[in-house]
Amino acid sequence: MHAEFEISTDERVTTVDVTERVEDQVPNDADGTATVFVKHTTAGISVNEAEPRLLSDIETALEDIVPETGWEHDELDGNADAHLRSMLLGRDVTVPVVDGRLDLGTWQSILLVECDGPRTRTVTVTCE
Ligand code: ZN
Question: How many domains, in total, are found in the chain?
Answer without folding.
Answer: 1
